[in-house]
């Protein structure tokens, strides 16, 4: 009865045994169901009994062997129940072996006797089964009378089974028994040899270590690693070596349990790298207490990983170099374009410059996407924690989208926000995600609304950011595809709108780095809604913002040192800063910059981070160590075309006060000047000179006359209507030219001519008249219409400036 494999058994001869009076067939069937449903409980109780009565050293180590034993015993009980009737009491005088109970006892006794188990031991163990079955049955939630009938049946079964066990145990083992004994022993030896062969044949090294750290056995794969001249089975069959795991492997087994990886291991075949698993032996009998240790050779995988990491580092270095080499000329083009825009340009030339500027922006965006994604793939994303205002982020995003929105008169951006507290987090990456999502929405939405929203979620400092549009929407099967790199939902998108298909992949990766998630919902024909949920820590009570915007700092001409090795970038920086009213000196190397600092007292230094003789960080450290106190305390601004790849911590460590990306963003430069030196440029960059020149094309007297005649409020509404209509006209002219519809061009130019002239916009009116005349004669060149479109797009800003000048001093209506 002691648990072993193949414990189930079905007797050969069966005859009816009389059941106690009052146990019906239905009740016997219910007992059978109860015992089968209690299989797991019976198994657990039997194992516990054997362990507490010191029978475990004679029995199987695996729980399933015990379960098989319980299943065999339950099958015999059910067989007895199936052959009973409810009319008579148990007949204890029935011939032994002719009923299921004694037949089971005879077979079980013979089987265990052949294994060398004594009668006393087997009867003791069998009584444990009896107690378990009776106790579990006594716990059954059935009527008391039924339960008592079940118990009488089980007592009868176990009584008769014990009779069967004892009846044949004392007799001599005959020839049949002897043959059975040989067969059983041969099967056991073969079974042992089979599993020993499997153990020795395993590719992975495996060691059996007892609870004291001594190696009891190891397979051939392990022996080849740690022992000289090893052969299969040499450890199992050889003399006891008394090897300890720590001495053999070179590290403690407890460390393996904690880490799961041992590192370098010195073996007979050289130094190898292993991942190691340690599993306690699954022995419920507790005869074999110890650990099964398996070595997994990961040397080649580690080498491959190291090679991949080396390649990733090489790729990163290449990308850093390529970033500088590619972005520098791109931003040089942008800078020179800005210089051209500061100068006197004919309308046609201004249209050309605008086209160059837009193309440069697109190219810079594509390069940035590729490099940003490569950086994220290489794991080079670092998070910064700064206090910031979510409201300010939303305003920044909307403001940066305005150039794109102005090209679509029928589109507007709306910001939806609730009362949002100051927060702490990576403002730059959050801004990058929202800019990317919003620019996509603007790009794919020809008309309607793009809504940027932010709200604080209940229960914690978690926030939801949304970007919704009324664009064409995305098919359901493409919703996950759009987040994959280099993939767009429609292959025609890249032809119509450009781009790399990396923007959303970058956004989702960045969202993951922020600990958030980016999702999308969309209905074709009705638009899309992108949602970013992210946790942001509570920030300071007064996050950085535009608190001083209402009180601009005083204008002052500064002496600036620009350290830039690229000639074009140096020219751009010098020209723009000079145009802003500052004195500028350029140094092409770090050494030249140090010489200049020794010769002249500057107010501020702007240095590129990639110089031929030393990088900008090294130059900054050298300046901070300068003997002259004024020089050592100069405000330092880092310049780079590779903004997202610049480490803020490295800048701070080097003593750099601010960072300015290339090409210069004038508003950002003014902000830096205000913060670092407490002044602004005498001539605000990018605004005053061109605007002043543009005002010469407007008859301010006409505007002022409207304001005085109609009142300031009514006249302002007229100007606002003109601002909106002129943008719509620009878009309509582009569509008409795309379709070569000269009649529409003529009509649009005619209406624009009248509207512009009515408000005093002489230059715009004259250009519209030229287009009208040429289009009416079917001789209108595309370049001429392009000039008019460019003038239309510049008109709203010009109208604001002209109205401010013309309405000054006019009373409200």
TrEMBL record:
The keyword Acetylation does not apply. CDD domains: HATPase_EvgS-ArcB-TorS-like, HisKA, HPT, REC_hyHK_CKI1_RcsC-like. It is a multi-pass membrane protein. Residues 321-538 form the Histidine kinase domain. Residues 711-803 form the HPt domain. Its EC number is 2.7.13.3. One of its GO terms (molecular function) is phosphorelay sensor kinase activity. Keywords: ATP-binding, Cell inner membrane, Cell membrane, Kinase, Membrane, Nucleotide-binding, Phosphoprotein, Transferase, Transmembrane, Transmembrane helix, Two-component regulatory system. The modification 4-aspartylphosphate is found at residue 608. One of its GO terms (cellular component) is plasma membrane. Residues 559-677 form the Response regulatory domain. The keyword Transmembrane applies. InterPro entries: CheY-like_superfamily (IPR011006), HATPase_C_sf (IPR036890), HATPase_dom (IPR003594), His_kinase_dom (IPR005467), HisK_dim/P_dom (IPR003661), HisK_dim/P_sf (IPR036097), HPT_dom_sf (IPR036641), PAS (IPR000014). It is found in: Cell inner membrane. The modification Phosphohistidine is found at residue 750. This is histidine kinase. The lineage of its organism: Bacteria, Pseudomonadati, Pseudomonadota, Alphaproteobacteria, Rhodobacterales.
